[in-house]
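Hi Y.,

Following your request, here is the sequence exactly as I used it, all 220 residues.
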Amino acid sequence: MNSEKKFFTVKEMAGIGVFAAFAFITTLICKLIPNVGGFLSIDAKDAVIAIASFVYGPVTAPIVSLIVAFIEFITISETGIWGLLMNFASSTAFSLTATLIYKYKKSFMGAIIGFGAAVVVTTAVMVGLNPLIVPLYSGVSREVVVAMIPKLLLPFNFAKTLMNSAIAMLLYKPIINALRAAGFVKKNDHKTEFNKTSVLTLAIGLAALLSAIVILIVIA
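Below is the corresponding structure, written out as tokens. Let me know if you'd prefer a different format.
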């Protein structure tokens, strides 16, 4: 998206709506996966939100994050307003970090560095918020939550954000091609030719995804 523009076009708003819907659908699908530790849910919506932010710019990150978190809040959430806050913080931290770095370094390395930073920042944000917010709705004491950090919360949040990074890398080109075919993305925007970089991206994405799955299985 042009950095000089102040508003989204109608077509861009429609595209953002499609991404928000897709992100929520992925959350519904991930509900079929058993929770880790009995209360930590796995979802891939942050990958979709990050791709939306890559396409339409960094400001898209908090917008789509809030839309999806609010839809969850009024439909399937069991954690009320606190869950909305946690979901918004997690999705925004992940997608905004990755997109801001990629915006200023639009290259393969920029994307890798962006997602790497997103994993670190989001993990830190969530590990910091868990002891503050989880006791407010779960009935579990803050001391118990803090004790969970090294063996459960830290590896879980790391694995979850690593998984979302991997999914974003694996799905970016197929999603862009689909949006281009539907007219939501201009044909000359976001090149998606399959080349050596594509192969390397797929390899790194698959390796990251497998690593995340292994970590989740170990701590489950």
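The first helix runs from residue 10 to 30.

Thanks again,
Q.
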